Predict the structure.
Amino acid sequence: MLCIKHPNTDPWFNLAAEEYVLKNFTENCFMLWRNENAIIVGKHQNTLAEVNMDYVKAKNIKVVRRLSGGGAVFHDLGNLNFSFIMNGEKDHKVDFKKFTLPIIEVLKKLSVDARFEGRNDLTIEGKKFSGNAEHVYKNRVLRHGTLLFSSLMEDLAMALKVNPLKYKDKAVKSVRSRVTNIREHLKEDMDVLQFRDRIMNHIHKTHPNCRFYDFTQKDLEGIRKLVEKKYSTWEWNFGSSPEYDLQKAIRTEGGFMEMHLNVNKGIIKDIRIFGDFFNKLDVSEVETILRETPHQEDEILKKLKTIPFQEYFHKVQPEEFAAGLF
């Protein structure tokens, strides 16, 4: 097994690195990594329904879609992530318990009563500190999980705080659990990097033929290509969302406005605008202009600036209208 411990904390790079190792390596691999502030959404989720976009923009938090299913999670430098990328067995079965056992073993040695509970969670005193997911590619299996070590819980709560009534869709919804940081339960004080080293050393000692590996220049180039073509793109992170309906209301100087949207693969397929605003020109023309536009604030604003916007919505700014569609 290859043990990969790299210092890169860019979320786009790290999600791309998982896919690169999954699809280009032939050996079993174990990776430990951290992300700067980011929200990582599951493959089958509606990104906008999982993310507090106002908070994300204000805090400059990256939003990235991963290969595996499951719910959205918040990452910061106090969160440690682990990945097992293994050659699959025949009659493959989902078995998160087996691959989270090394984490539990490390914590037991530190006198922490960690347990595997439910479908894919690790808990301490009934509170979740790790969620896990998997993705199968040909004969290879990616199993990965989060480890809340010293994360800022306020950021976690705010970044994932979304009005559950805003979106109507069939996408997989995240289930929020009571969470805890591992550090709060340790008898001896250590930081997240020291904890990382404990896990890596345990894996190295307990898995046969295990050796440390650093990404080569070829690896780094391949990962960066994946970042450029996939993981840094709006099309992957937002445009891959399942079909959804959105209803949003805003109050402006020009009056109350209510917008109903249908979005498929990130593209606005239909939009209706209602309200008590005043207008000179027919609002249906704006609805027509916005159809087939990416549900992306910059793209919407670009369209709105090609028309005499206040002739359609008196005393309403195009910027507040565009922001109101999220």
Summary: Residues 244-323 form a domain with the Enolase-like; domain 1 fold (CATH 3.30.390.50). The mean pLDDT is 90. The first strand starts at residue 2 and ends at 5. Residues 28 and 86 are 4 Å apart (CA to CA).
